[in-house]
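Researcher: Here's a chain I'd like modeled. Treat it as a single chain, no partners, no ligands.
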Amino acid sequence: MKKILSQEEMETLLKGVEDGRIATSTDAGSQFGVRHYDFREGVALYRNLRHFQSFSERVSQNLKDVLSTLLFKTFEISTTPPEVLNFGELQKMVQQGSCAGILRIKSDSPPGLFIFDPVLIYLLLELYFGGKGTAVQGEINENPLTPVKERVMRKVLKMITEQLNGTIKEYADLEIDLDKLESNLSILNLYEPDDPIIKTEFQIGINEATGRSLFCVPPAVVKSLRVSYPKVVEKERAITPDDRVTRTLVENLMNAEVEVVVELARIELTFEELRELSEGNVIATGKALDAEVTVLVQGVQKFRGQIGNRKGYQSVKITRVD
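Model: Modeled as a single isolated chain. Structure tokens:
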């Protein structure tokens, strides 16, 4: 049963308050570092993560387009759901030797990050210089970026930034600029260790080789996506079913692989001449070394080209379209 003060006790309490013997200060909480917190901010952030996930899927397609355009290869990219973590946790999960592109997004907020791990850097460099993109054998050298690595990765990140700028316009009125590259995330003072950051991860694969890339932005960017997000919904609603079918067909057509054959020469031999060929014989083509060759696409003559050498590999330079 609750205890109720008697009339005499209440009078004593009021008298004590009046003469100052009983303290009535309400700022006692300040000595414990109490601060105001609006729980609605956290709710709004998590609600907008679905907008950021939609944006990340578009970024994944941008990344695939950039790498395919630059390296003339078809990549497979999968995206993980966005995750909220603090900057200290992010620093621990990024390997030494990674390449982080520092992205300026909003003047009044910390920058974003686009990070490539050492395995992915190795894979991209191998493809850039004419390799086949095989799986990495053994450990990757985790040294800081060399001038060659930095030049290639800056080119990749600059192309990605240009794509990001076009995509983010559909979600918010923001601009993205590539500031600089950094190989050691632990020395960056972009955030306090406890500051939150939003991360999404891309697994990038070709043949049997796979690498990882991280795209990270401050919470302020995620919150701003809700401002223009309805534009994306309206745009999707404006697309008719026929338009969707057409777009799907075009995308599938553009990603279809075709066989390209360079025909050096065509020579007619009798069966007896063919039967007598052996190792070391030379077949004269009747063509000069600088003569044009025919390029066939799926067995159909489509281009004319010039045989040459590029980065240590035999290559064909297209000279005209048939």
